Amino acid sequence: MLHKTTFILIDDNDWELFLHKELILLSNADCQVQTFLNGFDALKYINNEMNPNHRNIILSDIHMPLMSGYDILEEIKKMPAHVKNKIEFYFVSATLDRDELKKAGSMKAIAGFFHKPLSVELITEKLIPELQYAV
User: Fold this and answer.
1) When comparing pLDDT for 29 and 78, which is higher?
2) Mean local confidence (pLDDT), 97-110
């Protein structure tokens, strides 16, 4: 099966990675899911393995040890246009801090911000409404 959309999930919490991966798979969308516990491994994947001919949706936590979601975004901004233009970057966070929400919401490089945990409805209505669904 040829997938035209890849979800790249980045979170230092392996339980949340598992939950969000399962919710994406439950949405029945024809896509693949890659998970990473840190930004370094995610960036290595993006630079070496990501298919720039596909739609790539990154869902990144903001606050993580080693490399924050903001740091990951800054590294993506430095990538060649043919790579970074095929990435839709979303923050996914449990934060309720108003300053943090304002900062993330004002960033032009991100496609959106979602509160944890994600839901199948959010995935199918906001992230992948146009994808083919398995029957």
Assistant:
1) 78
2) 68
b/e 102-129 (16+ beta carbons within 10 angstroms → b)? eebeeeeebeebbeeebeeeebbeebbe
What is the fold of 5-127?
Rossmann fold (3.40.50)
Whether the link from the prior residue into 117 is cis, omega within 30° of 0, is: yes
pLDDT score at 133: 46
Give the best-scoring range by mean pLDDT among 18-22, 82-86, 131-135. Answer: 18-22
